Amino acid sequence: MPWIQLKINTTSQLAEQISEQLEATGAVSVTFQDNQDTPVFEPLPGETPLWNNTDVIGLYNVDTDIDELKKRLNLAQYSYAITQLEDKNWEREWMDNFHPMQFGRRLWICPSWCDVREPDAVNVLLDPGLAFGTGTHPTTALCLTWLDNLDLQGKTIIDYGCGSGILAIAALKLGAKQAIGIDIDPQALQASRDNAERNQVNDKLTLYLAKDRPTDLVADVVVANILAGPLKELAPDITSLVKTEGDLGLSGILTDQAESVTLAYRPYFQLDPIATQEEWCRITGKRYAQSNPQHSDNN
Question: Which residues lie across from 126 on neighbouring strands?
Fold first, then answer.
């Protein structure tokens, strides 16, 4: 059936209060939307940050009395818009926004409801879900392209901050012998487990909460697609996971953060030229047999 949508423009300080008012007046759903395309980076654990200029959007049944709703919410004090939404299959509408995507030469990420475009390619079946990582974000795309260009045959990979498991699963499909996923969120581990089963590689994937991982883990390849702050803070820990002459890939880094991240890893890795996509970048390199004395003073 059709719906009535009420969009109220407000501030982050008032957004929660308005949300409660919409629910109290019969809204069947309430969502928040950034009004000015302002990114929110690195929220604290348990924090739900909102934008300074926020739209609070309520969805009402089509037979809602609009005049009565305006009075109850005192809408005259806000900048707002009321529109009628046509009847659609919203689940189908959402699904249609996702299509198979190619990374590098061989690798495709395919939603489960889409036909596989290249049956002879390396296809990873992955649906958008609660855990981060579907291939649509530039940082994930940069990591997938890097993995596609590595020789992973018979190697072990660690996906540090595995999220949906997309990088670990892609590495396994590209020939890795074993993958280890590490994350701080139990929901991410469940998503990784589910996606590994869908791709029939669950027998090759081991998952750990970060606090529970073995202290002696090492791998031929380590990829960490998280954020610049944690990458710098965790540099000694992440470095210790990479075998001598092993490969490291880091992303989740804005281009203006690249230099500070490279300083944390340069003593231990022969770094490649930085790869960029939009405002994001990827740092890769190969671990030295020992720390590089020329850069040890920067660590």
Answer: none
Q: What is the rounded CA–CA span in Å between residue 261 and residue 245?
A: 20
Tokens linked to 266: 């340069």
Q: Are 116 and 100 in contact (CB under 8 A)?
A: yes
pTM passes above 0.70: no
User: pLDDT by residue (tens digit) across 92-109?
Assistant: 544 455 667 788 888 887
pLDDT digits 0-9 by tens, 155-205: 999 999 998 899 999 999 999 999 999 999 898 899 899 999 999 999 999
